[in-house]
Amino acid sequence: MCVPAMLTRIKYVSRFAAPLSARDVEGIVDDSQRRNAGVGVTGALLTFGDVFMQFLEGPPAAVAAVLARIAIDPRHRDLVVLRRGDVDRRIFGEWSMRLLDVGDDARRETAPLLTRIESVAQCTALPTSALHDLDDLLWRTIGERGSRRAA
User: Fold this and answer.
1) Which residues contact 69 (CB under 8 A, 6 or more apart)?
2) What is the pLDDT of residues 6-59, one digit of tens each?
């Protein structure tokens, strides 16, 4: 009997350490696509305002190595892992990395979110509920931006 390989999925947020242009972010995605394809990691990177939100999935050791590299990347600060867990299948199996950009004009609108991410990142031990609250706030912010664009 063939046993499927165990996969891990991580969702994290971080703040831009300094302003990044669209070209800078595209460069990050290009590098990630090359590196991730070689180690079996797939995912999506979402940017809005000065926030990265990324999903990484793949073999546990490979995902951990990618996250460790991101944690010391000077373009990121206040990295917070929101969710981490083992999964049976990939959501982003077609993408070694894909950029989903909400737009540069989100900076002003996401200012409260940036402050929240920074405060969460400063705590060394947080209850899971606090991380899930931040995750919910992220999705509400993104959803509100999307519904305003569609109107």
Assistant:
1) none
2) 999 998 988 899 999 889 999 999 999 999 999 999 988 888 778 888 989 999
Query: Which residue stretches of the chain are H helix?
Result: 22-39, 60-71, 106-109, 111-122, 128-150
Structural domains of the chain, ranges and CATH numbers in brackets: 7-150 (3.30.70.100)
pTM: 0.74
**CA 105 – CA 107 distance, rounded (Å):** 6
Alpha-helix runs per DSSP H in 40-101 = 60-71
Contact residues for 106 (Cβ-Cβ < 8 A; gap 6+): 48, 49, 145
d(C-alpha 57, C-alpha 95), whole Å: 10
Beta bridge partners of 100: 46
Give the whole-angstrom CA distance, residue 146 versus residue 131: 23
